[in-house]
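Usage

Read records sequentially. Each one opens with the input sequence:
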Amino acid sequence: MEAPYQFIRQRPIYFTLTILALFVTVAFLHLSDIIDVRTAGEGLAPDLLRDEEGSNVISATKPITTTSFRIENETESEKIEDGSKGNYHDDHDNDVNVPANMGYYNLSCPFEWYKFSCAAIQENEFDEQVTAVSLKYYQQHRAEIWSAFDSVLNDPIDPQQPKRIFMTGDSLLRQVFISVACNAFSLNAVEQSEVQWRKISPCPEGIAKCVITGGQNSGFDAASVRFTNGMEIHYVPHAGFRSQAKAEPNILQRMKRQVDNMGQIDFGTKTAFPASGPMTHLVYNLGIHRSTRQSRRMLTHFASDIAMPLMKSKRGPKIVYVTTPTAHFNTTDGQYLPDEMNEEKKQCIDRVTHNPKAELEKQILQAGVNVDVLLDYDDLELGALHVHKGDCVHYCMPGAADVVGARLLESF
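and closes with the structure output:
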């Protein structure tokens, strides 16, 4: 017992230096994450965070049309009549006439969010133009969208092998879930659904008069839908949720434990209604709530500790990763810059040269290697389709998310 005591007495400086080195390292890493957020545009405005906390690479905007989607002076041919008196500061009219060639519109779908329905929140002529551009985009891709939904939802599924999909991400992947549910609803293909609508869901400050502040069409965390052909999709957020009781913030950790212990994963306990059987597809997106350093670490963790072991075991679900949509703020790379945003920078621009988040995701994830399918939003030139009103991250619905939703269905 004497020797260890003498060692400690004789060499205390080694322990002091070791502790000091550890302290400096931790402080440096913490400072690096702060710098990531401030310089890489990873932070988001409080309004955007309010609801947040061959080749299998699929492009979401195949060159179907060369039309440029800009906000310009409205023409009569682009004006959309919705049968609700334009919704200029009026209470929302639930008796909406859905325009021709549209699956859903202006909260005609029971899964829609009010703050993403540009027709419902429009307050002036500029908002009308934003709505018209988004609807025009949907209509130009209507054949592709409806073909995908019709072929998938009307195709009988083997009752012995039904498709059960688990989607987890933040509000951006939630928009894709809403798209799938709403287009299926428009085709009378929804057999059962449950949506955990929030009792209180304030609107962003950009909406001058907020009509819906809770209940249906306000906002939800988890939601589940089963289609008439037996396919079911369950969405649970891993970030951007309001209720701790209705979300699972540590989904990746839970999945890793299941992979380590059982070699497979399940839906967890937070789905809106219980899944009818084992998961066949996992649809994942990391989202916009992490710094570059954090995103790299979490994506690497997802790929190496969850996706690849499941792919190798052949017992797990098919892994589909949806890239993070492009932000189109009026900054160098379209990202939101904390503490630097003024009214000019908060305006959405039509196009940006690159999407840093999607580039990082495609650098780490490869179809056929560590994910089965990599679904790329490919939306650098779709800035005019955003909600605007200070939100250059989420898209108007219907709009860009519907094309991604259709191609997600095709990947199943």
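Summary fields computed downstream for this record:
- Confidence is low (pLDDT under 50) at residues 1-20, 22-43, 50-57, 59-92.
- Strands lie at 57-59, 164-168, 190-197, 220-227, 232-235, 281-284, 318-322, 373-376, 386-388, 391-395.
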